[in-house]
Amino acid sequence: MVRYAPCNAVLSPVYLCYRDLDLTCGFLQADKLRTQQQLEQLQARFVGTGHADTTKFEWTSNIHRDSYASYVGHPPLLSYMALGLNEPAAKLRTRLIEVRLSRIFKRVTAIIDHKS
């Protein structure tokens, strides 16, 4: 373990108390456990966070769904995009909704065709 002394040669009492602590055993294990528990809570609460069995298609589908919802649901972002595309915001909003619905419709029809 690397120990750093203060700039001056005098060691402070705080430094003397904490310099011999081994911080690699107890604190990191607790942090790993806490992080794992928070991840599991997040995955249970929100669909788009994924899990170990999430496929690439599901992951990208969640990303696209969340992106389009964000574009349509945040008017300043929609206005910024409309300005960059030189298109009215209402028209861009409609187009984004149509693109999202067409992807859902294609997926549903593919599933129905596959089952029949």
Could you list the spans in which at least 5 consecutive residues all have pLDDT below 50? 11-18
| Structural class based on helices, strands and sheet pairing | mainly alpha
The total count of helices amounts to 5
Number of strands: 0
* Averaged pLDDT: 77
Series of H and E elements:
HHHHH
User: What is the domain tally?
Assistant: 1
Largest sheet: none
Notes on the protein architecture:
The protein is mainly alpha-helical and 116 residues long. It has one domain (13-115). It is built from 5 helices and no strands. The protein has helices at residues 13-18, 26-45, 56-73, 75-85, 89-115. α3 (56-73) packs antiparallel against α5. The chain starts with 12 loop residues before the first helix and ends with a helix. The model is unreliable at 11-18 (pLDDT under 50). One of its GO terms (biological process) is mRNA splicing, via spliceosome. This is Splicing factor subunit. It holds the Pfam family SF3b10. InterPro entries: SF3b5/RDS3-10.
Topology:
Layout (H helix, E strand, L loop, with lengths): L12 H6 L7 H20 L10 H18 L1 H11 L3 H27 L1
Structural descriptors:
116 residues; mainly alpha; Splicing factor subunit; SF3b5/RDS3-10
